[in-house]
Amino acid sequence: MAITDADILYEDNHLIAVNKRAGDIVQVDETGDEPLDEQVKKYIAAKYDKPGGAFLGVVHRLDRPVSGLILFAKTSKALDRMNAIFKNREIKKTYFAVVRKKPAKPQGKLVDWLIKNPKKNVVTAYDHQVQGSQYCELDYQLLAEIDGYYLLRVNPLTGRSHQIRVQLSNMGCPIVGDNKYGYPRGSKKGSICLHARQLEFIHPVKKEPVKIFAKLPKDGFWEKFEKF
Fold first, then answer.
1. Which residues are within 8 A (CB) of 214 and not within 5 positions of it... i.e. 6 or more apart?
2. Which residues of 95-131 are buried (b: 16+ CB within 10 A; e: fewer)?
3. In whole angstroms, what is the distance from residue 225 CA to residue 79 CA?
4. Annotated catalytic residue 29
5. Phi, psi at residue 81, to the nearest 5°?
6. Is 213 exposed, middle or buried (0-12, 13-18, 19+ CB in 10 A)?
7. What's phi and psi for 169, nearest 5 deg?
8. What is the DSSP letter of 61?
C-alpha cells in the first residue's frame, strides 16, 4: 500500500516521520516485500517531482509486527546527526504496549542482558551479564485496565533488537499477539499490540525541540486506548 499524506506525521527539509502500519517492513529483507523506506522514497520523489529519486536514510527500525512512529532522514547530514542522537541516547522514545497479565508493580525499571539468535530471529533475556550479551534498560508505567487488557507506557533507554517484546515477556507480561515471546496465540493480521507512540529530541539542524506523536491504529481494538 502506497504512502499518502495521511501517513505523514512530520516533515521538513531534513526529516520525515511516518505512522508505520503493522506488517510493513522498514528495510528490504528475504521476503522480497516492498519495504517502507522505498515507499517513502517514492512518496518524496512524486511530491517534489524528483525523477532521479530521493535520498532517504533509515535512522532507526521497528519490528515488522509493530506499528507507529518511525523517523527517516532526507539528507545525509541529518542522517549522521540523528544517528549520533540515537547512539548518545539524546532522544526520548515512548511506546504503548497492551498485555493481558497485570504487572506486579504499577511502574518500574527493567534491566536485562540480551542475546540474539540471528538464525531464528529470537532474542533471549538474562538477569545477569553473560558472554556476548547486550545491556538493555527500559521504564514502564501501567496506564489503564480496559476489558481485561492492561495498557503500559514504555520508555526504552536503550535500543536493542526486540527489546520491549522480550523484556516485558521476561517480566511475565508478554505483549498481546506476540506468540514469539510467550503470548499463547498470534494475530491473524500478523501484528502485535506494540505501538511507537512518540519521539522527543532536539532537531539535528534547527536545534529546536521536536515532539512527534503517532495516533493508534484503527483496527477495532486499539481505539479503546486512544484517550491515553
1. 9, 17, 19, 67, 68, 69, 195, 196, 197, 198
2. bbbbbeeebeeeeeebebbbebeeeeeebbbeeeeee
3. 33
4. no
5. -70, -40
6. middle
7. -65, -40
8. -
pTM over 0.70: yes
Choose, from 12, 24, 49, 63, the residue flagged as catalytic: 63
C-alpha distance across the termini of the chain, in Å: 28
Nearest in space to 150 (alpha carbons), one of 181, 171, 179, 123:
171
* Residue-wise pLDDT tens digits, 89-121: 999 999 999 999 999 999 999 999 999 999 999
* Residues 148-160: tens digit of each pLDDT: 999 999 999 999 9
Can you give the length of the chain in residues? 228
Q: What angle do CA 186, 58, 193 make, to 5 degrees?
A: 20
As a whole number of angstroms, the distance between CA 66 and CA 138 comes to 17
